[in-house]
Amino acid sequence: MLRPSHLTAALNSLSDRYSRFVEIRRQRRTLMSLSDAQLLDIGLTRADAEEEYRQSFRLL
Q1: Could you tell me which residues come within 8 angstroms of residue 48 by beta carbon, excluding any fewer than 6 positions away?
Q2: Which Pfam family, any one, appears in the UniProt record (predicted)?
Q3: I need a labelling partner for 23 at 20 to 30 A (CA). Which of 4, 52, 56, 59 fits?
Q4: From the centroid of its chain, how far is CA 38?
Q5: Can you give the pTM of this predicted structure?
Q6: 45 in helix, strand or coil?
Q7: C-alpha 7: how far from its chain's center?
């Protein structure tokens, strides 16, 4: 049987992971919204940005 303290820890961990997932997805959507020139300014290509965005789905 799961003790209340273990349940609380598990829920906190799940919440933290979900928050991290949401933040990473937000950052990757922002990256995709940059123009090609802006991407080049930070040393990335459109293909790099698209690959990073596709990795978002591996987090699920």
Answers
A1: 39
A2: YjiS-like
A3: 4
A4: 20
A5: 0.71
A6: coil
A7: 25
Angle between helix axes 46-55 and 4-33 (nearest 10 degrees) is 160
* Longest distance between any two alpha carbons in the chain, whole Å: 56
User: pLDDT tens-digit profile of 3-45?
Assistant: 888 989 999 999 999 999 899 989 999 999 999 999 999 999 9
Quickly tell me which residue has 């020139």 as its tokens.
Answer: 37
Rounded Cα distance between 38 and 18, Å, is 29
Exposed/middle/buried for residue 3 (C-beta within 10 Å: 0-12, 13-18, 19+):
exposed
d(CA 18, CA 12) in angstroms, rounded, equals 10
Under 8 Å between Cβ of 39 and 1: no
Q: Residue 28 and residue 48: Cα distance in Å, rounded?
A: 11
